[in-house]
User: What shape does this take?
Amino acid sequence: MIRHSSKQVSPELFEWLESSSWDGDRTTGKRVSFWGDVWRRFWENKGAVIGLIIVLLVGIMALLGPAISPHTYYEQRLEHTNEAPSWQFWFGTDDLGRDLWTRTWYGAGVSLQIALLAALIDLILGVSYGSISGYFGGRLDLVMQRMLEVLYGIPTLIVIILILIVFEPGIVAIALAMSVTGWINMARVVRGQMLTLKTKEFILAASALGASHYRILMKHLFPNAMGPVIVMLMFTIPQAIFFEAFLSFIGLGIRPPEASLGMLVQQGFQVLQFSPIQLIIPATVLGLIMLGFNLLGDGLRDALDPKLRR
Amino acid sequence: MGKYVLQRVIYMVVTLWVIATFTFFLMHTLPGSPLKNEERLSPELQEQILAEYGLDQPLPIQYVQYFKRLLVGDLGISFYYDGRKVTDLIAGGFPVSAHIGLQAILIGVLVGVPLGCIAALRRGTAVDNAATLVAILGVSVPSFVLAALLSYYVGVVWGILPAGLWGSWKHSILPSLSLSVLVIAQMARFIRTEMLEVLGQDYIKTAKAKGLSQSVVVMRHALRNSLIPAITILGPLMINILTGSLVVEHIFAIPGMGEMFVQSIVVNDYTGIMGVTLFYSLLIIIVIFVIDILYGLIDPRIRIAGVKE
Assistant: This one.
């Protein structure tokens, strides 16, 4: 250290610097946000991109497919039953002469609607329950957890079947039946996130600055807990599509003349002996949707949390 | 550990009670009547039959009666299969379902574990990609689609194996195979991840540095340590198989418990539905409980974490 014991501190000892020469601690280059990083990792993952493309394609076809065909999904032409694919009927016809192209895409739309609705209900219930339980903690958390523990043991499928025996199956009824136990997993994930996040310094800082519970939850906790929630949702969707197909197969799904992928697979199974195409087409679309969402879910999980790469 | 087990048992009992109550009240809001040929029976006769099954009593009394019977393991008499006890029906169907299910798990583990292992050891190669593809396809193709295709092509068109029904051991191959694909896929995925994790550990380096051969390192150190966490996915897998068996048994016309459950749903057999529901729930709850305890016994680190929670 240089000592200036004899001299007084005077302005000459100091030297003016250009402001640009002392920003050595500044970040140079483009700043990468968390979501920007996620985005990049997602696009680097071939499987994830393929999954996204499949999901988008099937989604677009579910929206446009029925419209670009001249037929409706319910119109019966008894002179054209069980036909093979042709210029008139692109995917052939079923045993009542209904156009399978229209029915397949219409059914895919119904299956997707059920899955998205179920996922949405799971999201709302699970996030509310999980965040209240995890954030406020204490005795409330204890009681809420005990309840969850009991509900967690209930086998999902059994409950879905029981509910659909009693209530008329439709898009809403099926989605609701799936959500009866579906939200529990979401609540567990969200609670876990809340428990770890709420002890972090930035939450302490926010509450020290007088932020309300509402603001802390909305501004600080939810955005940070979003990753695992999105991943969870992505895996809920294929599972819901599988359940819907499964229910249709045992006669508890969507009722004719409506269509869903599960019902089409089931009807295809009935005529498998002489017209296997009627099973193969809807089964392929069903498989593709499940594959797409599984790949997408995997990709998002890896992108959101590279440490968890599984 | 004792305290943990006790706590879990209490939860199991409460869960079962919730399921039983839920089932009971739901069944009583069911549309339709449990009586066969209702229109042909005179009102007096209908009343007599309902009284015989205790269905003329007010709901709370029926509820108490129901629980009294449950406690002694009496699930009542099937409304559909004339006069047969539900417990007898379950006892008849369960061994068949268990046979198919356990065989499916066996096939799944025997194929899935080596597949995952090879994928991890040959990471990033064509073999790994192929294994990953198999795993993701296996998760995406529903077991009943597979069952329908197998039954038709292998059973009917090529005539290699029976396309359905139950009899010799040959009849169980196709159903088990269709159920096992999901097990293969999930096992392979899980083992691959675990193996990659374990292979990066220091003790694997030590083992290699000691001059142990590749096969000893893989078999004795890597695989063993990857297999322990695999126990945890056995629970969910068994539930999946149980779910799948409902439809797969239906497709192959196998007289198992799944087919019986689907039948009782179709014919509105109250007691049948309630009985099988409770049995399934009990089965699933016990399986998950046993697996958790087993895992705690094998891996002491989990036990401590479990108790803390």
Summary: The CA atoms of residues 280 and 306 of chain B lie 26 Å apart.
